[in-house]
Write a structure and sequence with these properties.
Chain lengths: 216, 265
């Protein structure tokens, strides 16, 4: 039976918006946490840590995100961790985001002049305080624009989760498209939602970049 | 600006006798390599408490590297350094403890640009010494007054002139009540008209009995303040003598050449 494209159809797509936002927020939050560890390892000055984190970043930047999601979805059960689509997608996106954010923040940390760390060290500040009080505040400003820019990529990237059966915005649009036989309308509405979320973020990222370029 | 303006009345003849005998820094057979480059060769040096030592030499002679080894900003491969009874090791806790007692002033000031002048001076006393905010702020203001810029306390470093920034950097180091102060070409990045205000601050510090190691080409400062002047070339200490002999009867040909070059400029 063909359903009409009515208010209910829009509500289904809207629930997909919610899933996309939740998934993006979790991936960004957990990816941010692990990304910070990656960035710290990458700038630690300890050869082994630097090589490992560098290889980690290279792997996730050098393979498609879809493949990373497949690996999480089909690979974890092989390793003895049966996963549902939610868990697989969360883990896949977290790993992906941690590699990209780690690389962005590594750049920010390394852009802070060496003299800053030296001055902090010469005052007797511990590594923890050198990073927290001197390096991070300066690296944060430099990294903010690319970080917001990456969050846009991540939100759009969550659409790939549809392929392993996770119902987010793209997948819910696909469901409505097949039940109403109005694919253009369904995907059009989904597109408007994506744009409404991502465009303001992109604008914000560009404004930040301009602001800090002017100050620098 | 004159000495009188600065409010300090240096009297080097008196303070010279105050120099103690206990070495506060002992450096034995120090060797450092940057890859294949032998940057420091068998350096032996003792500095007594309250002693003022000026180190000079051509660029690349290892003078900055030498003082940067004392607070472990540069790592050395061979030899040992003992600072105030503590031998320098590679253990972070030991290194941080020694750094807390050794103040350093850099050529490029290296103030923290995201913090105000006052916050720059308060950070380490609060984080390292565990001082309260009120206490740290009081100490910071005391030293900002000593370097004569208390009125700049709430400004950010970028709003200050080079000379002012360097004086803040000195105050920031002093807020940790260091036992030793290291100066790494503190006036080399300054416009000529600002050199004097920084040197005045350093002279005042010397008069208070601070143990100082200064890498500088300010020969007037060396002549009037230093107890000893050290000349380095190619990673070695070749001359280590009181300023009078250093300037008036240099018997080392490389030193004569060096003095000829910098005193002509």
């Amino acid at each position: 039976m063909i359903q009409s494209f009515d208010y209910n159809a829009v509500l289904v797509i809207l629930s997909g918006v919610k899933a996309t936002l939740i998934l993006s927020a979790i991936a960004f939050g957990m990816g941010g946490f692990f990304g910070l560890l990656v960035a710290l390892a990458r700038t630690s000055g300890i050869k082994l840590l630097e090589r490992l984190s560098s290889a980690y970043i290279d792997f996730f930047q050098g393979t498609p995100m879809l493949l990373q999601l497949f690996l999480a979805y089909y690979g974890l059960p092989v390793l003895g961790f049966p996963v549902n689509p939610w868990t697989a997608v969360t883990i896949g996106l977290t790993l992906h985001a941690s590699a990209y954010l780690g690389e962005i923040w590594r750049g920010g940390i390394q852009a802070v002049p060496r003299g800053q760390t030296e001055a902090a060290a010469a005052l007797g500040l511990s590594y923890h305080h050198r990073m927290r009080d001197v390096v991070f505040p300066q690296a944060f400003r430099l990294s903010l624009a690319p970080t917001v820019g990456f969050s846009v990529q991540l939100i759009k990237g969550t659409s790939l989760a549809a392929i392993i059966g996770f119902v987010e915005l793209s997948r819910s649009a696909q469901i409505i498209a097949s039940t109403t036989y109005k694919p253009l309308l369904a995907y059009g509405v989904a597109g408007i939602f994506y744009f409404a979320i991502c465009f303001p973020l992109s604008m914000y990222s560009m404004r930040l970049a301009k602001k800090y370029n002017r100050e620098a | 600006m004159t000495d009188k303006d600065s409010g300090f009345e240096p009297d080097h003849n008196v303070s010279h006798f105050a120099v103690g005998k206990e070495p506060i820094i002992t450096i034995e057979d120090l060797n450092k390599w940057f890859g294949d480059f032998h940057a420091l060769k068998n350096i032996n040096l003792q500095v007594a408490e309250r002693e003022r030592v000026v180190i000079c030499g051509p660029s690349g002679s290892g003078k900055s590297t030498l003082i940067r080894c004392i607070n472990h900003l540069d790592v050395f491969q061979k030899g040992r350094i003992v600072v105030d009874g503590n031998e320098l090791t590679n253990v972070a806790r030991n290194v941080d403890a020694i750094r807390a007692e050794v103040g350093m002033v850099f050529q490029q000031f290296n103030l923290f640009p995201h913090l105000t002048v006052l916050q720059n001076c308060m950070l380490a006393p609060m984080r390292v010494r565990g001082k309260s905010k009120a206490e740290a702020s009081q100490t910071a203001m005391k030293f900002l007054e000593r370097v004569r810029i208390p009125e700049q306390a709430s400004k950010y470093p970028a709003e200050l002139s080079g000379g002012q920034q360097q004086r803040v950097a000195i105050a920031r180091a002093l807020c940790m009540s260091p036992k030793i102060m290291l100066f790494d070409e503190p006036t080399s990045a300054l416009d000529p008209e600002m050199v004097r205000e920084v040197l005045d601050t350093m002279v005042a510090l010397a008069d208070e009995g601070m143990t100082m190691l200064c890498v500088t080409h300010e020969m007037g400062f060396a002549r009037s303040v230093a107890d000893r002047v050290i000349f380095m070339t190619a990673g070695e200490i070749v001359v280590d003598t009181p300023p009078l002999e250093f300037f008036d009867s240099p018997d080392n040909p490389r030193l004569r050449e060096f003095l000829g070059q910098i005193l002509h400029n």
